[in-house]
Design brief:
The protein has two domains: 4-121, MutM-like, N-terminal (N-terminal domain of MutM-like DNA repair proteins, Alpha-Beta Barrel), CATH 3.20.190.10; 134-262, Helicase, Ruva Protein, domain 3 (Orthogonal Bundle), CATH 1.10.8. It is 30% helix and 20% strand. The protein has helices at residues 4-18, 33-39, 112-121, 134-141, 147-152, 162-172, 185-205, 217-220; strands spanning 24-26, 44-50, 53-58, 63-67, 73-78, 88-94, 97-102, 106-110, 251-255, 258-262. Strand 2 and strand 3 form a beta hairpin. Helix 1 packs across helix 7 and helix 6 packs across helix 7. The relative contact order is 0.12.
Length: 270
């Protein structure tokens, strides 16, 4: 599932392609047809993101909400648009561009009340300049759940997925099993700042890099990481490989139905 930086990049892309002009909206597949009719021909005023949720805002207060889930993907190109291929849930066309959406977990029209309710279910987004993370810390501090599970809970922190959570905990020197009640405000502030920094870099670069310059391939004389997710990381999907900092083999275990990765030396329980 795409992490929050990818959704923010998509919002920027869609704003650039379509904002400020009328957009033709349809559903070749048919599953979004009724909602598409409600926004077809309207001006797309803006596109925004909150966590892993993407929003297209149309004149008249209508909003289209998209959650890509595990399989959703966008494709776009220059006009004229080609004939739809496969299960295209939503097609947008306007000006010199077209866009197709396939396989999302959600693609729906929301009225202002529904949009507000969805936002209320989400925690603060590290990529939102107005968020300070205090609400997230209050929830974390009051919970005995493991930090990994708390940080991946979109009602606590919106947008951080397994890679960002795994890597931020390594950089903080905390085991993923650390109970939320054990997290000090000082350490939380450092994690929040780190998430914001890493995710902003992800928006800018389009990939997830979490290692410091001293641990990059060129600095260490090692081969670049080869993985479909791209980017240089400390422990994510590096089971059994030496930690880039201390050379201890990286461990993995299932935690809350997800694979957790950590260095037993750099992330010792305190």
């Amino acid at each position: 599932m795409p992490e929050g930086h990818t959704i923010h990049r998509l919002a920027e892309r869609h704003r650039k392609l379509f904002a400020g002009r009328p957009v033709a909206v349809s559903s070749p597949q048919g599953r979004f047809a009724a909602d598409a009719l409600r926004v077809d021909g309207r001006v797309l005023e803006d596109a925004s993101a909150r966590g892993k949720h993407l929003f297209h805002h149309y004149e008249g207060g209508e909003t289209v909400h998209v959650h890509l889930g595990l399989y959703g993907k966008f494709a776009d190109g220059d006009a004229p648009a080609p004939a739809p291929v496969g299960e295209v849930r939503m097609r947008m066309a306007g000006g010199e561009h077209w866009l197709d959406l396939r396989g999302p977990a959600a693609c729906e029209r929301l009225d202002p009340a529904q949009l507000e309710a969805l936002h209320a279910r989400l925690g603060p987004d590290p990529l939102d300049e107005a968020s300070d993370g205090l609400l997230a810390y209050r929830i974390i501090k009051g919970s005995t759940r493991p930090l990994m599970a708390l940080l991946m809970d979109q009602a606590v922190v919106a947008g951080a997925g397994l890679i960002y959570v795994t890597e931020s905990l390594f950089r903080a020197g905390l085991p993923p099993t650390t109970p939320g009640t054990k997290l000090s405000r000082r350490r939380w502030d450092a994690i929040w700042h780190d998430l914001r920094t890493l995710m902003r870099a992800g928006v800018a670069e389009g990939r997830i890099d979490t290692v410091h310059s001293a641990h990059m391939p060129e600095a260490m004389g090692r081969a670049p990481r080869v993985d479909r997710h791209g980017g240089e990381v400390y422990v994510y999907r590096r089971t059994g490989q030496p930690c880039l900092v201390c050379q201890t083999p990286v461990r993995t275990a299932v935690l809350n139905a997800r694979n957790a990765y950590w260095c037993p030396r750099c992330q010792k329980a305190r």
